[in-house]
User: Fold Methylthioribose-1-phosphate isomerase from Desulfosoma caldarium.
Amino acid sequence: MPSSPLRPIWWDGDAVMILDQRLLPHKHKVLRCTTVDDVIRAIKTMAIRGAPAVGIAGAMAAALGARTIMAADVRTFVRKFSRVCERIRSARPTGNNLSWAVDAMFAVVVENPGVDVPRLQQLIREKSQAILEEDVRTNEAIGRWGMEVVPRGARILTYCNAGALATGDYGTALGVIRAAFAADPSLHVTCCETRPFLQGSRLTAYELMAEKIPCTLITDNAAGSLMQQKKIDLVIVGADRIAANGDTANKIGTYALAVLAQANGVPFYVAAPRSTIDPLLPNGSQIPIEERDAKEVTHFYGRLVAPRGMAAVNPAFDVTPHRYITGIITEVGIIRKPFTRGIRRALEAPPPTSNPV
Ligand SMILES: CSC[C@H]1O[C@H](OP(=O)(O)O)[C@H](O)[C@@H]1O
Assistant:
């Protein structure tokens, strides 16, 4: 069992256990995954979601796949494992963490020449657990750095779910909120429902209420008006892929929030681990945006709301140009403009070892 009721994924012997987030907050069902396809299906259907959590799921799927490869020799094993990794990589296109995790899993093979197949399978399984544990430490460091930008009594707005359920535990944007709340219980969080999958009203609200963090749910459309009325002190969101210049892909609707924040003089922060950064992308124009089923728009919990036959488009993410971002909170510090130089330095920094503040 996981150490926290909010952990979205964990090993249970030879099975990967995934908390089915499609049913939260009112039903708590765990999917028992024993094959690569079980995990890929959980990712594609958003039973597990959130860029870092999807990366961890990809790592564990790779370990499940490695275990089932029957190969007498290492060369055959490597060839088959490479194919498994490529299948996992394509499960969801926008988040950088999935490909980052798959690359890290394949690197185990590259970094262990001369090791036999059973030992490689064990090392791959251990790496997947290490990625989970490193993610939690990373989020705690993001939380500690992020406290620097949260004034006492802050009224914070957040979007979608960048919490324990979107990561290995603790969260990125919600990691900052958890760390700030531990030091200052007077803060307040406004969370946007985040149509159409409702990560805000179902998941972020669930996390915040579980920990008695003062919070209020609003429709996505209300965010701008609250900022206009000076009722929000700062915005903190997660990220799915950050380009080398700081352009950031996140849940659809984030771009609008960032423009509204700048228009109203509200600081706008992105909280993300370095595994979300894609240094090979010079800017956000080439970030692949996942198109999801139009039924998520025309239906509400499976019930047709729009007229039958109504056309709908459902991009799951958008890209916020770096000019609208105040800072990027990572596990090695807060990156501010000029982002290209700051991101390069952050990627060169050693991993966090202790409390940076
Ligand atoms: C900790 S980053 C989580 C990130 O992922 C969410 O998207 P989805 O729920 O579709 O996986 C959203 O963009 C969050 O900010």
Observations:
- DSSP finds eleven helices and 16 strands in the chain.
- Residues 99 and 111 are 18 Å apart (CA to CA).
- The mean pLDDT is 96.
- The chain has two domains: 9-140, 142-348.
